Amino acid sequence: MFSKTKLEDLLTKNQFSDGERARTGGINTYPPLIEDLWSLYENVVKRRVVSILEYGSGWSTLVRALALEHNKKIYGDLVRSEIRHPNPFHLMTVDSSRSFSKIAVRRAEEYTTTEIVSVVSKSKLVEIESQICNVFTNVPPFTADFVYIDGPDSSQVKGSIRGFHPRFGDRERKYGMPMTADLIGLEFFLWPGSTIVVDGRGANANFLRKILKRDWQYSYNSFTNQHFFDLVEPSWGKYSQKLLELKKLSI
Predict the structure, then answer these.
(1) Where are the domains of the chain?
(2) Shortest CA distance to 212 belongs to which of 204, 201, 222?
(3) Which ranges of the chain would DSSP assign to H, the alpha helix?
(4) Global model pTM greater than 0.85
(5) Is residue 207 a contact partner of residue 133, using CB atoms and an 8 Å limit?
(6) Which of 150, 194, 197, 227 would bridge with 205, disulfide CB 3.0–4.6 Å?
(7) Tens digits of per-residue pLDDT, 158-187?
(8) What is the rounded CA–CA span in Å between residue 95 and residue 164?
(9) Topology of the domain covering 4-23+31-247
(10) Which are the contacts of 192, defined by CB distance < 8 A and separation ≥ 6?
(11) Where are the alpha helices (DSSP H) in 56-201?
């Protein structure tokens, strides 16, 4: 099994270069935090995740791809034979920055065999239930039981509604408050036993807590600043029951 020490070595060997930072087009980039990344790895393994959808790419793309590769080695035959899953052990990454996505996917493909679907999409402001929020304009069909939200950056969200946009401050002190809402439209396509992780973005996590409709169990890891939503519902039928049994979550 992949270890925390191996992850630290991997990050040391692959520090984000100045050239890569320049090619992200000025989007905010942050150094990798080993505890956050290791938490994501452990959660994908512990939850026996079969497929991953991430909004926002980066170092975590590599870590989740490694964890998914681990799961495939152990559960791949069972999933293929007993669960009618449309994209088992695939990772779809959705990002508004083509350059940033390319760097993240290239890094992941160098160290794992996980199949990665890369989607570059614009993000725009919309209103859902009278609340202003942002959604990607192009996300192809994909079945995931683990969804990670760390994008887009507020500077990537286009448009305004009645003069409002999520990009605050001025030239000297810029900040923003992204309110990613893509899962509102996709919520009822998620299988029982699915997990959502919101990385930081406390306001966004609170928004989802108030607006999602299904039986989500919420928890917060203050050490890694990660918000977890676990879908605690009975199976839909034969195949979703098999997934719950795989995860040892049968209700």
Answers:
(1) 4-23+31-247
(2) 204
(3) 4-13, 18-23, 34-46, 59-82, 98-111, 182-186, 202-211, 238-247
(4) yes
(5) yes
(6) 227
(7) 999 999 998 887 667 677 899 999 999 999
(8) 23
(9) Rossmann fold (3.40.50)
(10) 231, 232, 233, 234, 235, 236, 240, 243, 244, 249, 251
(11) 59-82, 98-111, 182-186
